[in-house]
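Pipeline run #58 for the internal structure catalog. This entry was flagged by the ingest filter as a single-chain record with no existing model, so it goes straight to prediction. Upstream metadata was stripped on purpose; only the residue string is passed forward. Reviewer on rotation: M.T. Logging verbosity set to normal.
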Amino acid sequence: MNKLFSLLFLILCSQSSLFAQQNDVYIKAGLLYDSEQNALLKDKVIYVKGNKIVSIGAFNTIPDDAEIIDLTEYTILPGLIDAHTHVLFSQDATEDFSEHSIHSLTMESDALRTIRGSKRAKSYLDVGITSVKDLGNSGLFLDVALRDAINEGTIDGPRIFASGPIMAATGGQVYGVSPKHQNLIDLEYRIINGVEDAKTAVREHVNQKVDVIKICADNIPNNTHLSIAEMKAIVETAKTYNLSVVAHSITNQSAWNAIQAGVDGIEHGFNLADSTLTLMVEKKVFLVPTENSKTYMKTYSKLAGYDDDNLGWVDNYLGRMKSRLARAIQKGVTIVAGSDNYTDIGGTRGESSRDMFRAYFEAGMKPLDILQSATYISALNLNKQNEIGVLKSGAKADLIAVKGHISTDFINTIGHVVFVMKDGKVYVSQHN
């Protein structure tokens, strides 16, 4: 019955796209970002038919009677990808994660949670993010339901790659729960109890049609963690179903263990040692460094109630993250862009997600490298490099246009999205 109510509410709150899907249209680009080659190309035209890109050519390839969208004053990019989101979870800066999680599980119905998530989903399109990798904290497969609602056109939102409940050791990431209420954690996490149970958990997720598996290599601030044997069982079972496995990791040891178990990617990795980064390169394990900008951290600190004279930890945090990212890049670790921004600091979820671009830029990444991490490299590690994150023949018609100079004025330009197309449908059209 709850699923029926959820579907009815989703239909009632659905929003139609700005325009219907284009049948045949030629889009003229002053500059076009080739994400595979990590280069900007001048004066290109993108031929879109239905929801696919047919070809990329020169202006003189446009037929005389063609429908044209003239974006010659702008730079066209593939639709951006945020590889670490929690669309169905949100908390205020003053709230404790554990207390809010329990409140959400006990006081927020699945229907209400999904409707709120649908509003956040639409906001990603508004800023040019046309795909997200959603990694848990979404109840019992509500992320899969939201994905399906978007795919069928019931609501507007980015293309979602959903993990379902995070697989974790006893207690998950929710701390301080009394023994008699531990069952509440099962509503948010899939608790693993041994190697055979790990295999069963993957099969359960496969049966619910997830796109990726996420595990917690550590449960900080809880003391429990998955064993290498359990993680290895998850990885090996997932591989038989062609699913990748990514690992939440705060400590260096947990990241090392997850890599030894065969995971495809490390999420966060705040405390990675040089030796672990070297191992990641050897094992071809990617890193999603969930960074925050100085502007974001100052806003968060103010909302959280920190005194202005007690913010030394912010500079310390930013310095450590900058060093970690620089070391990872220097060693050749594959960087995939992801935000992990689920705290409400004002503005929409999409705007909060977009802060990752500012964070990477402030940490020293070059503009085109940031774009590649948020397009082609991200798609490659989803095994979707021929469908999304690229502008080429046969790819999905996911593309955006930005105003400004992407190489010399990156932050202002990436924040000035004037056109968004996903699957051949136009959702934002603010160009002249």
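catalog note: The first helix runs from residue 2 to 12.
catalog note: Residues 4-19 have pLDDT under 50 and may be disordered.
status: ready for reviewer M.T.
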